[in-house]
Every structure is written in structure tokens, then in C-alpha cells.
Specification:
single chain; alpha+beta; Chorismate Mutase Domain, subunit A; Nonspecific Lipid-transfer Protein, Chain A; 12 helices; 61% helix; globular
């Protein structure tokens, strides 16, 4: 009898270990991709591939985390040293493409391995606010209009926004402390130094949910997760335009990126709230 119970307990424990091992392999794959991407950024910006200061920080953090978890810090250091060595090898592999076109975005299966406990451990966007403040305004002037214009590359999407051409529309990401004023000039969005005539305010997650069409504008505004201030008439016009914008005409890559990014942030927020309630 005891032998049977022991076999059952051992099988269950091994199954749990196997699931953790599977997730560790998936996380290792993601780490390798990110490491390769970091290598490309270093190459493009003229930085040295080896960064001993950064590596020392990674190992120190791993040792501190191991100490808090009751693990042997030396074992943690050996593990991180192995991961760093693999990252070096991946960055040296010129033939490696960190994000090939077929795998530019995580598949649904890969997302399933990102557990709620891991997502709950991620800091909410508001904790990134101090870092966001250091993004040079000159970079935002260039990057924000360019990225949004690229997302609206279809003629149908741009045509649907013509009623607000020349008007100054503000977007405020309150948890990141970022805000922009943009204007539609012909077939592109441009940065505006003028005061916003109408301002849409919300969290990074809710604004991304709106942009990805995972939640409609009426729901977000009714629940006051998004706020509209300024010119009421212009704000209502903008709200209606967002609802009528031809989502199917958006580039496929933009739609996939927006929806999967919104889904990930939404899951992370739900997991974080669950942790707070449990605490």
C-alpha cells in the first residue's frame, strides 16, 4: 500500500518537474532571442559586444535572488555564467536571425507557457515611469509620429481620419507619464507643439486595448478607463472615428503586434491584481 502511494506521489512530482523544465527551455529560447537582438543593437550603435560591467550586474543580481530564495549563490552564479556564455555564442553567430519573419511574434502556444505567476511578477507600467522620463523628447518627436503613421499605412485608414486633419489631438499615457500632441498632415501624422484641442488619457494597457480593437471605445470610456478632455465636439468626432476605422485594412503585422501586445499586458495586469488580492 505504501509502495503504491509512494509511486503515485513520485509520478506527480516528476510531472510537475517536467512542466517546469519545459517552461525553462521556452524561457531560455526567449532569452537567446533577446540576447541576439541586444547584439544587433550594439553592432548598429557601435558598442562593444562584450560588456563585463553588465555581466557582473547579472551575476550579482542572480546571487542576491538565490540568497533570498534559500539557494546556493554559487550554483546560481554557475547557471548565469552558462547562460551568458550561450548569449555570447548566439551574438557571434552572424547567420542567426533573432526574430525571423515567421517568428516575429510569439505564437499562442508560446504565450501559454508565460504563467500568471510570472506575469504577476512583472512590474506594472507605472514602475517604468522613472525610466520613461529619460526618453529624450527629440526622440519622441521623431519616433511616435513615424510609428503611428506606419501603423496607418493603408489608404482606407488614413482616409477615415481626414475629418480631423489639421486638428491637434493629444494622447496621454498616465501611468508612464508620457504625453504627445499630434496632427494629421496629408497622409502622415506629425508632431505638434500646439496645445491639444482634445486629449485622450488612459493607462498604457487600456490605450493598447483600444488600438488593438480588443475592447471598443464605448466600453473603455463608459468605464472611465479612458478619459476624453478638451473640445467636446472634436472629442466625440474622434471617438466615432476610432470606432469606424477600417481595422481590416491595417497591415497584418501591425494587427498581430497590437493584439498580442495588448493581450500580454492585459494578462499581466490581471495577474498582478490577483496577487494583490491574495496578499
Amino acid at each position: 500500500m505504501m509502495t503504491w502511494l509512494g509511486d503515485l506521489a513520485l509520478s506527480g512530482t516528476r510531472l510537475a518537474i517536467d512542466r517546469i523544465d519545459d517552461r525553462m527551455v521556452v524561457l531560455f529560447s526567449h532569452r537567446q532571442r533577446l540576447a541576439a537582438w541586444a547584439g544587433k543593437i550594439k553592432a548598429r550603435t557601435g558598442r562593444r559586444r562584450l560588456d563585463t560591467t553588465r555581466e557582473a550586474q547579472v551575476i550579482t543580481r542572480a546571487r542576491d535572488t538565490a540568497q533570498r530564495c534559500g539557494l546556493d549563490p554559487d550554483s546560481s552564479e554557475r547557471l548565469m555564467s552558462l547562460l551568458i556564455a550561450h548569449a555570447h555564442q548566439r551574438q557571434c553567430d552572424a547567420a542567426f536571425q533573432p526574430y525571423p519573419s515567421q517568428a516575429l511574434f510569439m505564437s499562442t502556444a508560446e504565450f501559454s507557457y508565460v504563467t500568471d505567476s510570472l506575469l504577476g511578477a512583472l512590474p506594472p507600467p507605472r514602475y517604468w515611469r522613472p525610466l520613461a522620463k529619460h526618453i529624450p523628447v527629440s526622440w519622441q518627436h521623431i519616433a511616435v509620429p513615424r510609428l503611428l503613421t506606419r501603423a496607418l499605412t493603408s489608404s482606407d485608414a488614413l482616409h477615415s481620419l481626414q475629418p480631423i486633419a489639421g486638428r491637434h489631438i493629444g494622447i496621454k499615457v498616465n501611468d508612464l507619464g508620457l504625453s504627445w500632441v499630434l496632427s494629421l498632415d496629408g497622409e502622415r501624422l506629425v508632431w505638434s507643439d500646439s496645445e491639444a484641442e482634445a486629449m485622450v488619457t488612459g493607462s498604457a494597457t487600456d490605450l493598447l486595448l483600444l488600438a488593438s480593437r480588443m475592447e471598443d471605445a464605448d466600453t473603455l470610456f463608459f468605464q472611465r478607463r479612458l478619459m476624453l478632455t478638451g473640445d467636446t465636439e472634436l472629442g466625440l468626432l474622434l471617438r466615432n472615428l476610432l470606432d469606424r476605422m477600417p481595422w481590416e485594412s491595417f497591415p497584418l503585422g501591425s494587427r498581430i503586434l497590437l493584439q498580442r501586445g495588448a493581450r500580454l499586458l492585459q494578462r499581466a495586469r490581471s495577474a498582478h491584481r490577483s496577487r494583490k488580492v491574495a496578499a
